[in-house]
From TrEMBL:
<dbReference type="Pfam" id="PF01535">
    <property type="entry name" value="PPR"/>
</dbReference>
<dbReference type="InterPro" id="IPR011990">
    <property type="entry name" value="TPR-like_helical_dom_sf"/>
</dbReference>
<dbReference type="Pfam" id="PF14432">
    <property type="entry name" value="DYW_deaminase"/>
</dbReference>
<dbReference type="GO" id="GO:0099402">
    <property type="term" value="P:plant organ development"/>
</dbReference>
<dbReference type="InterPro" id="IPR002885">
    <property type="entry name" value="PPR_rpt"/>
</dbReference>
<dbReference type="GO" id="GO:0003723">
    <property type="term" value="F:RNA binding"/>
</dbReference>
<protein>
    <recommendedName>
        <fullName>DYW domain-containing protein</fullName>
    </recommendedName>
</protein>
<dbReference type="GO" id="GO:0008270">
    <property type="term" value="F:zinc ion binding"/>
</dbReference>
<dbReference type="InterPro" id="IPR032867">
    <property type="entry name" value="DYW_dom"/>
</dbReference>
<feature type="domain" description="DYW">
    <location>
        <begin position="301"/>
        <end position="392"/>
    </location>
</feature>
<dbReference type="InterPro" id="IPR046848">
    <property type="entry name" value="E_motif"/>
</dbReference>
<dbReference type="Pfam" id="PF20431">
    <property type="entry name" value="E_motif"/>
</dbReference>
<dbReference type="InterPro" id="IPR046849">
    <property type="entry name" value="E2_motif"/>
</dbReference>
<dbReference type="GO" id="GO:0009451">
    <property type="term" value="P:RNA modification"/>
</dbReference>
<keyword id="KW-0677">Repeat</keyword>
<dbReference type="Pfam" id="PF20430">
    <property type="entry name" value="Eplus_motif"/>
</dbReference>
<dbReference type="InterPro" id="IPR046960">
    <property type="entry name" value="PPR_At4g14850-like_plant"/>
</dbReference>
Length: 392
């Protein structure tokens, strides 16, 4: 059986917390915004260096103009206050040009315009931090988190805490993430605990994962995804018996595990696949292409991640791990489109770890780009890697 979960969405901005201290050395810059948990659906494209006096806006159908900065800090503050600079930061983040957004924010700070930064710009900055967290932008994220209340006098909201928890979680700083939750000046929200639970899944921290899951069970007892994350933590830690208990608890609550579905559009026609699906008219060709792909993937070191299966599946279902809906959709896309054509998939749940690893290898073998939109974020697979940095 293919198991997925719907992940809580991630957010943006960051603020400072009085009395919060992280034992982190070597802060790298004043800009933190680009370090958050926004998924990078497309790769970053190198762009020209930003000029502190002349900033070319990201193309916008409503306005094509250049923002000319007056000499001196006062002129810069006026431009920032009029949303000229802040607007450009938000546009850069929207188009996933995160590093440039941070560079521009650093210029803004150095020129004394940070007091003009509003909540929406901070939202964009934190989004950028999450987008660049794979490149080690944690310190920048912390600085932006702190600068919000310090420089702009904004109180942090739950969404900002959730972003910061994800940033810390990406770096494996789970104790610091828990400290941040406990120090919040309000009752922790489900999104904050869910961000911690996801980090525990990635880093296989069973004890803290159980603690976060229990908090979520009390707050939203019928939300299936929380149970599935805990089950996957048990399985990845070799605790299949405990995973079986979670599955039994689901059955007692009357919660059903529904099969995941994946859609792909070819020639303007949508095609839907489920686990082990053989209903498609071209099933024979699909399975033949997928089996050949798997042989190539094995040569590259691929091995199915059986630990992520349910504890009560048999050997037949373990073999069927190769035929998850995502893999079937990819195989169909490969046989139905010309070479080098990008493939675009939509997955109704969260993509599983095995399919995530498999699709990375498939992009290497086929020289294709594959974009998967799952319940968590966009995954842009290219040259054997994913835009999410293997954190979702």
């Amino acid at each position: 059986m293919e198991l997925h979960l719907s992940a809580p969405s991630r957010f943006s901005p960051v603020f400072s917390v009085p009395g919060l201290s992280f034992n982190l050395s070597k802060p790298r810059s004043l800009c933190i915004g680009s370090c958050s948990c926004f998924s990078r659906g497309q790769s970053l494209i190198p762009k020209p260096q930003l000029n502190p006096k002349t900033i070319t806006p990201v193309p916008d159908p409503r306005e094509e103009e250049e923002v000319e900065m007056e000499d001196g800090d006062e002129g810069f503050q006026k431009a920032a206050a009029s949303q000229g600079i802040c607007g450009q930061i938000e546009k850069l983040v929207f188009f996933k040009r995160y590093k440039e957004a941070l560079e521009l924010f650093e210029i803004l700070q150095l020129r004394g315009g940070r007091s003009a930064v509003g909540a929406s710009t901070y939202d964009s900055l934190v989004t950028a931090c999450i987008g660049l967290s794979y490149s080690g932008f944690l310190d920048e994220g912390i600085e932006i988190f702190e600068s919000m209340s310090r420089d702009s006098k904004m109180k942090p909201r739950a969404m900002h805490y959730a972003c910061m928890i994800e940033l810390l979680g990406r770096e494996g700083l789970l104790d610091e993430a828990l400290e941040l939750i406990r120090d919040a000046p309000f009752s922790p929200t489900t999104n904050m605990w869910a961000a911690l639970l996801t980090a525990c899944r990635i880093h296989k921290n069973l004890e803290l994962g159980k603690f976060a899951a229990e908090k979520l069970f009390g707050m939203e007892p019928e939300k299936l995804s929380n149970y599935i994350v805990l089950l996957n933590i048990y399985n990845s830690c070799g605790r299949a018996a405990d995973g079986a208990k979670v599955l039994e608890a689901l059955k007692k609550k009357g919660l059903r595990l529904l099969p995941a579905c994946t859609w792909i559009e070819v020639k303007k026609q949508p095609h839907r696949f489920i686990f082990g699906d053989k209903s498609h008219p071209e099933s024979i060709k699909i399975y033949e292409r997928l089996d050949n792909l798997i042989k190539e993937m094995v040569k590259q070191g691929y091995a199915p991640m059986e630990k992520h299966l349910l504890p009560d599946v048999g050997q037949h279902e373990q073999r069927m791990l190769n035929y998850h809906s995502e893999k079937l959709a990819v195989a169909y896309g490969l046989i139905s489109t010309q070479d080098y054509t990008p493939l675009h998939l939509v997955q109704g749940h969260r993509i599983c770890s095995d399919c995530h690893s498999a699709i990375k290898l498939i992009t290497l073998i086929t020289k294709r780009e594959i974009v998967v939109r799952d319940a968590s974020r966009f995954h842009h697979f290219k040259h054997g890697s994913c835009s999410c940095g293997d954190y979702w």
